[in-house]
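Troubleshooting: if your tokenizer reports a length mismatch, compare your output against this known-good record of 179 residues.
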Amino acid sequence: TQIIDAYLGLAALRQAGYRSTATAVAELVDNSIEAGAIDIDIIAISRSAMISRKTSNRVESIAVLDNGGGMPPRVLENCLSLGWGTRLETREGLGRFGFGLKGSSISQARRVDVFSWIETGEVYRSYLDLDEIRDGKLTDLPSVERAELPLDIQKCFGDKLGPTGSLVWWTELDQVDLR
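Known-good structure output:
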């Protein structure tokens, strides 16, 4: 017997602790600061959509990009595991419970991709997708893979990307509160 059903557990955790999108994004900014980032960009990508017979811009994804130390693949492969963290044994720093990145991300979006690099041009990615978990397609965290940053990020920040850094990208937004 399972201790917890992964999808139902994550669905319950989505409702815990983050009152707004701003507090969820602040969690990612805290992580960037802990990683030694000097530059942190909060990016909202919107697209035109027809809403109630009017064209309006709708936020499609939110990302936090930093020039911190980045995560090597062995850290990246664990960063989306609940209860896992690099500061669990210390009382120093902004976070230490192994929930911040995951909890803030799933509180806002059905999918989170984490890209990180510790050398220029060597970007790796991990992700968590609630729909894949619900549908039984994802029962363990996927293996870390080499990847390209999303085109929207490359277009806006390509020449500004540091030799190390991370990008947390929320898509399939369904609980965003931008008030």
